[in-house]
Design goal:
The chain is of the alpha/beta class. The protein has two domains: about 220 residues, TIM Barrel (Alpha-Beta Barrel), CATH 3.20.20; about 130 residues, Lyase, Ornithine Decarboxylase, Chain A, domain 1 (Beta Barrel), CATH 2.40.37. Helix content is about 30%, strand content about 25%. An eight-stranded parallel beta sheet has the order 8-7-6-5-4-3-2-9. A hairpin with a 2-residue loop joins strand 14 and strand 15. The longest helix has 14 residues. The radius of gyration is 23 Å and the shape is elongated. It starts with 5 loop residues before the first strand and ends with a strand. The protein binds pyridoxal-5'-phosphate (PLP). The site of pyridoxal-5'-phosphate has 13 residues, from helix 9 and helix 11.
Length: about 375
């Protein structure tokens, strides 16, 4: 029998979250962001559900190649653009749209000859100081692109630094509006946080921003929302925004210990039992992608009952408190099913509920799902 760990990817959840994102976008077209192998879900696995999007956005040219091989003929956008001159030939071959965020990329484009072969998104640095032209450089860059024979339509984009919290997007939006003022071209601004916060709310309630149409633009770019994680890191937001978990991580109890009061559990003896306890050993560890920094008390579900992990997470195992499971009348023994995050039968445990005490985000846990974990599409 194989080690009893398994991840599942729910196409139904992906479809639901994409539809939810589309509604939030209020008519804007939707880039399904599938970078990092669809946030760990697998581009090939997610594709049948996400092909209802208007385009796919990613970074890696190999992933773009995968989408074309799957038969996707629609738009694909390279979010970091080309990494070198030779990538422009790949863009022409695969018909990829690409972001232009640096003068070097314009320089490379200047050497291409095929008329209007390149559909680009010019990126404004609206305050995050990661990728993009400053507001002062933006119009000059736009003008240069207009003059290049190999460049076709030029769209405008920016990425928000604080869409998921305070102070929100008002300043960045103002910088964007003034940089693109009077220029033709489509616009794209929203990641999941901006889309869900400022877009059309669930049940058709209006968005929170006075100027929702300006924030939403022509294309929105949800990533984490498609996978049912919270862009803010707070699980309550994922619930409030009616997102469903696309990834579940399941395993089983493979051993049981009875620990006396005062007994310790795991490497470093970081957990001490205050009373006699039944401890289960679940077959999941950091080599599967379970966060090593998850402290004692991090929630986990055994046999449908919410309990907690105890002691340090090891490479292949994590110890869990079986007493609440027993108290709920379940067997809590070798073979009992364990839900690390996601949804199984009637139980749901948000990936962000595990990420938060571990000092990280659902994003990181999804992307870190290890190759050794078999994945089943459901
Ligand atoms: C990753 C990424 C997104 C999606 O972000 P989420 O927070 O996952 O919605 C959107 N735009 C750009 C430029 C990105 O790099």
């Amino acid at each position: 029998m194989p080690r009893p760990i398994q991840a599942t990817v729910s196409l139904e959840a992906l479809r639901h979250n994409l539809a939810r994102s589309r509604t939030a976008g209020g008519g804007a077209r939707v880039w399904a962001v599938v970078k990092a192998n669809a946030y760990g879900h697998g581009v090939e696995r997610a594709f049948p559900a996400l092909r209802a999007a208007d385009g796919f956005a990613l970074l890696d040219l190999a992933e773009a190649e995968t989408l074309r091989a799957l038969g996707w003929g629609g738009p694909i956008l390279l979010l970091e653009g080309c990494f070198g001159l030779e990538d422009l030939a790949t863009c022409e071959r695969l018909n990829l749209w690409h972001v232009v965020h640096d003068a070097a990329q314009i320089h490379w484009l200047a050497s291409r000859r095929k008329p209007r072969a390149h559909r680009v998104f010019l990126k404004l640095n609206s305050g995050m100081n990661r990728l993009g032209f400053t507001p002062e450089q933006y119009r000059v860059a736009w003008q240069r692109l207009q003059e290049l024979p190999a460049v076709g339509a030029v769209s405008h984009m920016t990425h928000f630094a604080t869409a998921d919290g305070e102070p929100g997007v008002a300043d960045a939006l103002e910088r964007f509006e003034s940089a693109v003022d009077g220029l033709p071209g489509e616009r794209s601004l929203c990641n999941s946080a901006a889309l869900l916060r400022y877009g059309v709310q669930a049940q058709g309630r209006p968005g929170r921003h006075d100027d929702a149409a300006a924030v939403l633009g022509d294309w929105v770019r949800p990533g984490i929302a498609l996978y049912g994680g919270s862009p803010t890191g707070a699980h309550a937001d994922a619930t409030r925004w009616e997102l469903r978990p696309a990834m579940s991580l399941l395993t089983r109890i493979i051993g049981v210990q009875t620990v006396e009061a005062g007994g310790v559990v795991g490497y470093g003896a970081t957990f001490r039992a205050e009373r006699p306890m039944r401890i289960g050993v679940a077959a999941v560890g950091y080599a599967d992608g379970y966060p090593r920094h998850a402290p004692s008390g991090t929630p986990i579900v055994v046999d449908g009952v919410r309990t907690r992990i105890v002691g340090r997470v090891s490479m292949d195992m994590v110890m869990v408190d079986l007493d609440p499971v027993r108290a709920a009348g379940r067997a809590a023994d070798v073979g009992s099913p364990v839900l690390c995050w996601g949804r199984h039968l009637d139980a749901e445990l948000g990936i962000d509920e595990v990420a938060e005490p571990s000092g990280t985000l659902g994003y990181e846990l999804m992307c870190a799902l290890a190759r050794r974990v078999p994945v089943q599409v459901v």
